[in-house]
Amino acid sequence: MNPDERRYTCEETFRRLEDYVDRELSAEEMERVREHLKTCEGCAHEFHFHEQTLQSLRNRLQRIAMPPALLSRITQAIRQE
Amino acid sequence: MQNRHTQVDTEAFEALLLPVLPKAYGTAYHLTHSRDDAEDLVQEASLQAYRAFHTFQPGTNFKAWFFKILINLFRNHCRKRKREPEIAPLDDAPDLYLYSQTAQTGLHKDHDNPAELVLEQMTEAQIRRAITALPNEYQIVCILYFINELAYQEIADMVGVPVGTVRSRLHRGRKLLQKSLWHVANEETPLSNLKLSYEGTPA
After folding, report:
1. Are B13 and A77 a contacting pair, CB within 8 Å?
2. Contact present, B79 and B170 (Cβ < 8 Å)
3. Is the Cβ–Cβ distance between B181 and B122 less than 8 Å?
4. pTM (2 d.p.)
């Protein structure tokens, strides 16, 4: 196959944005998206921002600590079954 | 109830359960929006899992098995309470919603990570309000995704839907969440003021 035929357009790349960020594409698709991002500054910027947004959300939502007493409450309840 | 478990069963169960409890609590908290309800949900799921432990196949994914129980319990609670989103349902949002909004507000010029800037100035209550604007099934998938960093297939196993459904709910849910966060973040302090205050100009 001609290398140009394998190259994704911006639209084809953008369609794969979420699956790419979540590593849900096949190895071949991941590579083709990576290749596009190397040469397209606009898409690379959008992908970078999307990744950043998801990571920031993850950091914000994961900031909830389990109360230490819950662990003993649960193990006690299990042992009383 | 008569105890059907040996001490070995109980120890084996706890060895699998205890490492997944912190993420289970985080998930339960964002689903119920209450620390007390989250504790009750996690404890109830733990006891239900313990009673059903004889049905768990050793060597398979305990976390997925346990979270499936937790999600089903949460759904039952919602049905009993007839819980609906607390604020008006959102219309669909365009792709990269936060990207375009923060760009329009001028936050891209001076900040490496405008999304973080928006999220960090939000209170826990605001984040909670933004999540509750999503339909329940979208909340479940998004929270599992953000709290647990799971593959789509794992989420599908926990929620009991095909992987394609997880993909589409996540795709739409993440867009809705970005829109909701932006709206809630702007309610009290318009984010254009945030930009000005960062530049040292009175907002």
Report:
1. no
2. no
3. yes
4. 0.84
State the CB neighbour count (10 A cutoff) for residue B172: 18
Residue B90: predicted pLDDT: 63
CB contact under 8 Å between B151 and A18, yes or no, is: no
pLDDT digits (tens, 9 = 90+) for B18-31: 999 999 999 999 99
Structure tokens at B23: 């993420």
Residue found by looking up tokens 């991002």 in the block: A37
Angle A16-B153-A26 from CA coordinates, rounded to 5°: 40
Task: Give the nearest partner residue to A78 out of B50, B119, B170, using CB atoms.
Answer: B50
Q: B59: distance to nearest CA of chain A, Å?
A: 22
pLDDT score, position A76? 95
Residue whose entry in the numeric block shows the structure tokens 């959300």: A57
pLDDT of residue B203: 35
Spell out the alpha helix ranges (H) of B33-190: 35-51, 62-81, 97-104, 107-110, 114-120, 124-132, 136-148, 152-159, 163-188
Q: Average model confidence (pLDDT) for chain B?
A: 85
- The residues spanned by each domain of chain A are 3-79
Structure-token match 């109980």, residue found: B10
| pLDDT confidence band for B87 (50 / 70 / 90) | very low
The amino acid that residue B96 corresponds to is L
Q: Of A52, A7, A15, A1, which is closest to residue A31 (Cα–Cα)? A: A7
State whether residue A62 sits within 8 Å of chain B by CB: yes
Give all domains of chain B, ordered by start, each with its CATH number: 7-81 (1.10.1740.10), 97-188 (1.10.10.10)
